[in-house]
Amino acid sequence: MIRAGNIYDYIDSFAPFGSAMSFDNPGLLVGDREAPVSAAVLSLDITPPVVREARELKAGLIVSHHPVIFHPLKSLDAGSVPYLLAKCGIAAICAHTNLDMAAGGVNTCLAGRLQLQNVRMLSEYENSGLPEALVGETAGKYAPAAFAGFVKEALGCDGLRYTDGKHTITRVGLCSGGGADLVYAAAEYGCQAFVTGESKHNILLDAENMGITFVDAGHFYTEDIVIQPLLEKLEKQFPGVRFLKSKQMHSPAKYL
User: Fold this and answer.
1) Percentage helix, strand, coil for the chain under 3-state DSSP, each rounded to 5
2) Which of 21, 41, 245, 252 is the most exposed place for a label (fewest CB within 10 A)?
3) Average pLDDT over residues 101-113
4) pLDDT tens-place string over residues 220-237
5) How far from chain centre, in Å, is Cα 70?
6) Angle, alpha carbons 29-33-35 (nearest 5°)
7) CA–CA gap between residue 35 and residue 31 (Å, rounded)
8) Average pLDDT for 124-136
9) Neighbours of 198 (CB within 10 A)
């Protein structure tokens, strides 16, 4: 019988939980190492619908990217996800910034979707020396609007926001999720474009002034891309466990 601790240890072997950023809270956050796992659901987030889905699938574990417990709990409401997980007897392993920065992790998957070549470190996380952002060359030359359209298609976005950097794009920096402030490192590196999942008005203005095509493709779409590759990796390591990607998890943002 495979147990939650076996799956935790395997993830730790290629995305060490100890390498996560200092603010983060990854790990085995609900349940214990001895929890038996014959089926597991993978999801970017753990929401009440995802917990119910896992229960219906008789899954003993949910592996997610975003931590199900991030800040210290001051109460435990009966409708909260940690309560529901405990009530249903479902363990939760959350691999967050440790998976973002790992080789083959979220940022690597994003670079792959964007078909970048010669991918390398753009910015180093000072506590570990791991890459918090990557940079690479595009397969061809893009005008700003054409590049934004390519990103939208490559990630399957419902919509996105971008700035017109006015320059032909051949070099792209990226950071999945909330990496908007790394656009300055991208500009210093000579990137003509930067792709991430969130943006702020002042940073968009700065990007435009620096001549950077800043593409805000949405937090969900820049990170959900890791779930299927992670599922396949786990399937190969644990052939006796059914791994299923959540059908309930989706981007909460809607576009008109």
Assistant:
1) 35, 25, 40
2) 252
3) 98
4) 999 999 999 999 999 999
5) 16
6) 100
7) 7
8) 97
9) 16
